Amino acid sequence: MKTLSEYLIDAEKAHGHMCPGQVLGVRMSMLGLSEIGIHDPKGKDRKNIIVFVEMDQCATDAVQSVTGCSLGKRSMKFMDYGKMAATYLNVATNRAVRIVAREDSRQKARELFPEIEDKYAGQLEAYKLMSDAELFNMMDVTVKVALE
Length: 148
Prior knowledge:
6 helices
C-alpha cells in the first residue's frame, strides 16, 4: 500500500483538485482495505474487492483512486443514501466493513486549526492528522452479493 501522501496525489490527479472530501475518501479507503485484508487492490487482489459507496461527492473519486474499483468494472456499487459512507467487501473471504464519516469530525477539525478562517482549508489539514477513530465509525457487516 502507498502512503497517505502518495494516495492524496493520485486522488487529486483523478479528481482535479484537493478538498476535504478527497482526504476523507482516501483515509476511509485505506482503513477499509486494511480491515478486510486487501493489500494490493490494483494488482493481485483486484478481483477480490467490491466497494459500495453511499455518496455522490468528491470522496467517491478518492475511493476509486485508492481501490481501483469503478462502476464500469462493476466493482463499485452506488447506493444513493446521501451518507459519507462506504462498505468494503473482500469477496474471497466474505469479510466486510462499513465505514461512516463522523459528523463531529468537522467541529474537531475547527478546534484543531482555529487560526484557519476557511473551514474547508482547516478540514483539509485536520483530516490528514486526525486519528481514524476521530474521523470514522466502523462496523463489521454482512454483504450478500450474487457474483456472476
